[in-house]
Amino acid sequence: MLRGGTEAVRVEKLARALGVTKGSFYWHFQDRDELLELLLREWESEVAEILSQAGRGDERKKVHRLVRLLERRVKLSEAGKAPSDAAIFAWASVDRAVARRVNKAEEERIELLKHFMGGRDRIELFYLVWLGFVARGQRVPESRKRFPEIAQLLLELLSEPRTKRRMQQRSRKPKASGELVLRHRAE
Fold first, then answer.
1. Can you give the pTM of this predicted structure?
2. How many domains does the chain have?
3. Which of 65, 142, 183, 185 gives a 20 to 30 Å CA spacing to 9?
4. Is the per-residue pLDDT at 173 higher than 70?
């Protein structure tokens, strides 16, 4: 699915790649649609699982554990051993029902992250960085190798105490509807 979309998910192809019969596939799954549904459900539930693994403690430690878990998840996803955000987002771009579920799951992810890390602005920044990494990784696969470096920079930005204050100041509403207000604060 990561490399060829949902159209590439074919029972015969999967059975051949796994060295099993098509009958073996049907022993575990009613049909291809059930397999796709299970993949989507696994993706929908993974953030709650990741956050529970990140555990408790002060915010800085939790954020560090979260980014390290995401780093491992990227490797697992690339190997086909964990759900792929890139594959799910690509699927959502061509299937309205999946898009609705993905949109709902993203809102739930942001809410969970907000409770985990605090502050919607910081979470949205974190999530947008993640989405940018996922999208670029689809177009430029070699960029995935830089994830540890990108993760470290993200950790530094999110761990910086002043970041929280700056993000809160920037979250104030623009003066006029639709007006983009850019603020630069000299330090």
1. 0.72
2. 1
3. 142
4. no
Residue type, 42: E
Tell me if residue 177 falls in helix, strand or coil: coil
Query: Position 67: which residue type?
Result: V
Dump pLDDT digits (tens) for 77-116.
878 888 888 899 999 999 999 999 999 999 888 888 887 7
What per-residue confidence (pLDDT) applies to 19? 92
Asked whether residue 33 is assigned to any structural domain, the reply reads no
The secondary structure of 13-58 as a DSSP string is HHHHHHT--HHHHHHH-SSHHHHHHHHHHHHHHHHHHHHHHH-SS-
Residue 166 belongs to a domain = yes
Q: Residue 171's pLDDT is what?
A: 54
Domain of residue 83 covers 40-170
Q: Does 24 fall in a domain? A: no
Buried b (16+ CB within 10 A) or exposed e, 137-174: bbeeeeebeebeebbeebbeebeeeebbeebeeeeeee
